[in-house]
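Quality-control log, excerpt.
Job 1 of 2 completed; input and output follow.
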Amino acid sequence: MTRHQTAEPDLGVLAARVLFSVQRELFTALAEQGFDDIPPRAGAVLAYLRADGIRASELARASGQHKQVIGSLIDDLERLGYVERKPDPADRRAKLICPTEHGLLQMEAAASIMRAIEERHAKALGTREYAAFKTALQRVADLQRQAQHDSHAPGRSQSNSEEAP
């Protein structure tokens, strides 16, 4: 076995396998339901979009993407008719990214597809084991995000850290 081969895939490889597989299934099913114009990268916005709207800065923070990337995705989704920018009632200088009627239909379809995916896994693993898996995965995601945040904290050397994708 070489230095780069291990007996089991590491966390990044496993996380990528799950992400890409779920993403393919989700976007294939969405396309079959008429939402065939959404690029998978738009999931960084759609996964965190709320029916009552959300600020682009909150989308960036929640998704871990740069504001410029989120802005470009919002532009694309706005052109496709899934979202619109509206003044934030709490701060008229800010904009909320709100789903359009078409966007709300897509959100409902995506939620239904994701429920079916999760139900399938819960059935295969057992409800308790699947719940424990999700809890552990959430904890790992939180720990990873905290480690990323800590490595970029003021006063910390960033020479060994890299930006999240």
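Job 2 of 2 completed; input and output follow.
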Amino acid sequence: MSLTETRYTISEVEARTGLTQHTLRWYERIGLMPQVDRSHSGQRRFTDRDLDWLAFVGKLRATGMSVADMVRYAELVRAGEHTSEARRELLERTRRDVRARIAELTDTLAVLDFKIEMYSGRNCGEH
């Protein structure tokens, strides 16, 4: 880390990400977040790279990936390039799950659209 790199306090990261300080500390404690640099007084100092990682974790959360799988992915990243195949497999499995959820939601949306159209025409059935 360079001396000129921007560093953020936990309060600033909370404001930028919407994640609570408790959540940020928990992410670090469970290994989802790499160890955050500390100032000489022990205050956490996050970097732009940390913010990028948190944004990616937010995307993983949005996929419905379990915390255990997110931690596993973080461990694989920290383990190095030789884990790229395992990381890819984990992300591909998550992509399959997301696509299945999208298909299910698309079907659900079609049913809702049908019902709304039915009610708009005042041709209401029992359901």
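Post-run check on job 2. The longest strand covers residues 44-47.
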